[in-house]
Design goal:
about 240 residues; about 70% helix; two-stranded antiparallel sheet; mainly alpha
Length: about 240
């Protein structure tokens, strides 16, 4: 089990790690903006570069044991930047989805909420699970649905495709299984809980008005995984 880093612990190595993470995020945003300008003003690809690239930072934070206060602070700052960019499009690549969406803002806030929830409990895997289900599941579902979606359906005025939803289901199951497998091993709870998470995440992703799925999917996936672990304890 990884050990929780105290709330205000600070070392030179810690700030070096934080600096490297910030540099990596900056490179991802720069790449997205470059794609946005060179490919299309409404390119989904540019936004998904940010979506997928930034989400994986949760694994680095878990591995390096970044203190919770840093993760929460970064989430608040990223949320403010995303909200400002929504009203003043100085970073159009991170918000260009061809519709009114606060998805990037919700995405940033969900990271802070999950870190605040699970870091003190030393249940880091559920924060990572929630974020990565959204990162990879929704990210790939959007790209696959847009490129190969031939069977559309509608949920509360939002256009979706069965191809995209199936991608979300499979990817969510794969991500959840890999994370739980690495923590609790090859036990039946790993596969059952992952399946429940996949169905919940796919259902929540189907409703994406104003990008709210960027909040509901991470929180819902993490909550299902955590509470089922209490009901279905190992051993």
């Amino acid at each position: 089990m990884l050990h929780f880093t105290p709330w205000l612990e600070s070392t030179p190595d810690l700030w070096l790690n934080v600096g490297l993470i910030a540099l990596g995020l900056g490179i991802i945003v720069l790449l997205a903006e470059t794609l946005h300008r060179r490919i299309s003003t409404n390119s989904e690809l540019a936004r998904k570069v940010v979506h997928i690239g930034t989400g994986n930072v949760i694994l680095v934070a878990w591995w390096l044991q970044i203190p919770a206060w840093i993760g929460i602070s970064a989430s608040i700052i990223a949320g403010i930047i995303a909200l400002l960019s929504y009203y003043i499009p100085f970073l159009p690549g991170i918000n260009s989805v061809g519709r009114k969406s606060l998805g990037t803002f919700f995405y940033a806030i969900s990271i802070g909420i999950l870190i605040a929830w699970f870091w003190p409990l030393e249940q880091f895997q559920y924060a990572a699970l929630g974020i990565l289900v959204m990162t990879w599941g929704d990210g790939l579902a959007g790209l696959i649905g847009q490129r190969f979606g031939q069977h559309p359906y509608e949920v509360w005025g939002m256009q979706k495709s069965w191809e995209g939803s199936f991608t979300m289901l499979v990817t969510s199951y794969a991500v959840s299984s890999l994370i739980l497998l690495s923590v609790q091993g090859n036990v039946w709870q790993t596969w059952v809980v992952s399946l429940a998470i996949a169905f919940v995440a796919t259902s929540l992703e189907a409703f994406s008005k104003l990008g709210i799925d960027n909040l509901t999917v991470p929180l819902g996936s993490a909550a299902v995984g955590f509470f089922l672990s209490q009901i279905l304890p190992l051993g």
